[in-house]
Design goal:
Number of domains: 1
Helix content: 40-55%
Structural class: mainly alpha
Strand order of the largest sheet: 1-2
């Protein structure tokens, strides 16, 4: 199985459609090719870190003519948060946890 096939398989688990050309472009940004063989040494965390925000911004449910496709946005957000932590990068979807309590000091 090559990297592109692996990514498409993983996206199909989430019911997400992402074109082969978009996958190729995103992989080239991190120095990989969709046609390379998938192996245990290949880490795609940076790929997912870059792509999941685009997926999250897509509609999470599409229906037409009695056919409906949807994905679990919360599961993708949790996966993104996990990857961001693994990479030591900011979670761009995390809620702000800083609370202004200066009024209590006065």
């Amino acid at each position: 199985m090559n990297i592109g096939e692996y990514i498409q398989e993983k996206m199909s688990l989430w019911s997400v459609e992402y074109s082969d050309s978009m996958i190729a472009i995103e992989l080239s940004r991190i120095g990989l090719s969709a046609s390379e063989s998938m192996s245990g040494e290949i880490n795609l965390d940076l790929f997912w870190y870059n792509v999941i925000p685009e997926i999250i911004l897509m509609p999470n449910s599409v229906s037409e003519g009695g056919y409906s496709v949807s994905y679990d946005k919360e599961a993708l957000l949790k996966y993104y948060s996990l990857i961001a932590g693994n990479l030591g990068k900011p979670d761009r979807f995390a809620s702000n946890t800083i609370t202004d309590i200066t009024a209590k000091w006065g």
